[in-house]
Amino acid sequence: MATAFLCNRKVSGFAVLNFMSSPVMHDRWGVPPWKIDFDPPKLSLPDSVDIAIVGGGFSGLSAAAWLRLISPQTSVGVFEASHIGAGASGRTGGLALAESAAGDLPGLGDVLAGTMRILQELKVDCDLQLPGAWEIARGDTANQSLNAPPRRSPIDWHDSGALRVVSEVPGGTIDAGKMVSGLGRAARRLGAKIFEHQPVNKIEWNPQPTLQFTGGNVRAKKVLIATSALSMELSDLAGRAQPRLTLALSTAPLSEGELSQLGLAERKPFYTVDLPYLWGRLCSDNSLIFGAGLVNPPASGDLREIDIDVQDVSRMFASLELRVRGLHAVLAAARFTHRWAGPISFREGWSPAFAHHPTSADGFVLGAYAGHGVVLSVYLGAWAAEAIVGRRQLPEWGWIDPVRKG
User: What domains appear along the chain, each with residue ranges and CATH number?
Assistant: First the structure.
């Protein structure tokens, strides 16, 4: 994978944010199939809050709701540059996986069971289904797998070789729109304030954390930065993580007979364990989502400049559509109803960033899930809430080098 790092820039104790001076331009990235049906009431910026959360996605909304649940006397404000779910959370394919992209990290615990408990406690219904997930592979890789299931592979596709199931792991799917909406409602119901279309221009950390907006400043006792690959300078992950766009598309609904022919009657999501990478899942209406490919940022580093309908990205989508049609005869005449891209970021070693901000112990950074953020973001959002109020320690694997705080 090519490496493209952003430049980190600090001026006189300020974290300077270039990317978030205006709302995200979603139209350039296509339209996902999810529907976010919760609109927070419009609110004026407050003078201060106890806890400021930057980012209205899975992590930020989960942290806000959990903070109010465990510490109802604490005032919480969520500040979102566009609308809730506008970044990675509303543009995911919704494939829920256990652990992290780096595996089962020390002290991480059971991510799937923990997330289910959090969603139940917050009364969030997001169509979470956990039937397991299939790892699939091609040719010799499939034949040599030590984890090959004893029964015949339900999937028999062609993609640079015969593509078959080689293992089953814990996992499942969610409806991303319902997850964002449900977490937003939970945060609102529990008393958190959500401020949409309020991009943070700067954070001054000393002597007290102060978020600077075009319309004014907001003081906070502590700040959680839970944003996507669009705001790495604010989180101080610039140069420490790699931002990308990842691509996905969905088909029109298929019949039960067609799903059976495809080997998907058990409705398990899947992903390859060899290259070229491919993942997919069924939706409740029997449409299929497939995803593959990473798009490097432009020279400016601003992913918002990428238009999926032009140049190289358009060709990547055409290649993905052709690839899906070639998997199986049922998909040969597939009609594609949506195609979209979403931001993703990777750290060296693939573990998430989950630490104090390198500039201040009053700041917390959470992100860089490397494709495992669908449930991990909710799980770690609640953990972050507990850490902010002093009920839990931050994990060592989340430290942001070279500064180590915790």
Answer: 10-105+176-239+349-398 (3.50.50.60), 134-170+242-347 (3.30.9)
- DSSP H helical ranges for 111-228: 111-122, 139-144, 176-189
Q: CA angle, 35 as apex, 29 and 41 as ends, to 5°?
A: 100
Phi, psi of 142 (to 5 degrees): -65, -40
pTM of the model: 0.90
Angle between helices 111-122 and 373-388 (to 10 degrees): 70
Burial class (CB in 10 A: 0-12, 13-18, 19+), 335: exposed
Q: How far is the CA of 294 from the CAs of 45, 240, 276, 357, in angstroms?
A: 37, 18, 12, 28
Residue 291 near residue 374, CB atoms below 8 Å: no
Over residues 71-129, the pLDDT tens digits come to 999 999 999 999 999 999 999 999 999 999 999 999 999 999 999 999 999 999 999 99
Of the candidates 128, 170, 175, 375, the residue with the CA atom closest to the CA atom of residue 289: 175
Reading the block at residue 239, the tokens are 């140069």
Give the list of residues 6+ apart from residue 58 with CB closer than 8 angstroms, or none.
89, 179, 180, 183, 373, 374, 377, 378, 381
Overall residue count recorded for the chain in this entry: 406
| 95 backbone dihedrals φ, ψ, rounded to 5° | -90, 115
